[in-house]
Amino acid sequence: MKKTQEINPNSINNIPNTTKFIGEIVTESDIKFDGFIKGALNTKKKLVLGESGVIEGNVTCNNAIISGKITGDIFVEDLVTFYATAKITGNITCNKISVEPGALINGKCIMSNTDDKTGKNKKEDRKEKQNG
Fold it and tell me: Residue 6: inside a domain, yes or no?
């Protein structure tokens, strides 16, 4: 009998610096990325981009810790943290941002706690859903 493997959304995808991708990476889990990608990276969880990590494409995630290089737009639902070694060329859309001295960011930063689709404040919308 064939066993089916369940996907663990709490797992971490670890991509080492010896790995190169051409295309799009989509994952439901956290991802620690130290390699190179020419294409988009999308996760519903956290992205950790190491110092050797290079992304040439757009990034979409829930939270991000960036130490490497991104050439493309960054869309983070909650908190994005740029360490001193980060080099960014592109626009950033996020709710919260933390930037260490030394990080290089060339682009616009749009900070908002509203959902672009509904225009509602995310926190207020969550309270409405919880209260029914």
Answer: no
Give phi and psi for 124, each to the nearest 5.
Answer: -65, -40
Q: Is residue 113 part of a domain?
A: yes
Reported as a pLDDT band with limits 50, 70 and 90, residue 84 is: very high
Q: Is residue 89 part of a domain?
A: yes
What's the Cα-to-Cα distance from 17 to each of 10, 25, 29, 38, 83, rounded to whole Å? 22, 16, 19, 14, 18
Number of domains in the chain: 1
Domain annotation covers residue 126: yes
Distance in angstroms (rounded) separating the CA atoms of residues 64 and 104: 16
Structural domain range at position 109: 12-131
The pLDDT tens digits of the residues spanning 1-22 come to: 444 445 555 677 878 788 898 9
Digit-coded pLDDT (tens) for 22-59: 999 999 999 999 999 999 999 999 999 999 999 999 99
